[in-house]
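Same chain as my last thread, 189 residues:
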Amino acid sequence: MSSEVPDWGGLEVFKYKIDLTKVGPGVFSFLDEEYLKKNKEVIVLTFMSSGYVEQHGFSGESIIGVMPVSAERLDSESFTQNSAFRVLVQSLAIRADEPGLQDFIDRDKPEMVAAIDRRTVDVMSEVPSEDIIGVYKITGKKITNFEPNKHYKFITGSGIAKLTPGIVEELKQIYGSEAGFNKGKHDDK
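reply #2:
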């Protein structure tokens, strides 16, 4: 089973029904024993294309998270996020070329800039911690570091993650056609 889920900010996300008893160890290590006992089958959310998944299976960081088959909808109550995918997203933020970020740094000369999930409508208002991907540290108009936010969530009461354009582009460059994107660094495999 594969079908697209709502917009994640330009990242193509698919869902698959998986029998956890038939998956090798380590792939779903972010799920605790209690969850595994309650849920023999889950819906997996990933950015990997059906062709790639059918041929190679899942890799840990390509899994965004899971939800029980019995869940009526994708929401913060039913979704269990994969911390390995969160770490991947946050590691790409430092490399990402976010539209307008350098212009903002050049103009306003901030010491820090928050990378905010685009599901947040008004970034000038109080932004919930779970919507902050992390914080860029700025020295002399240059990004010198990125501090990931361990509280960042892909699904909250405010909705589904809408990743920044720079992060989506980095995922495309790394995973390319493996993820159903048109081109990328892994296309020559």
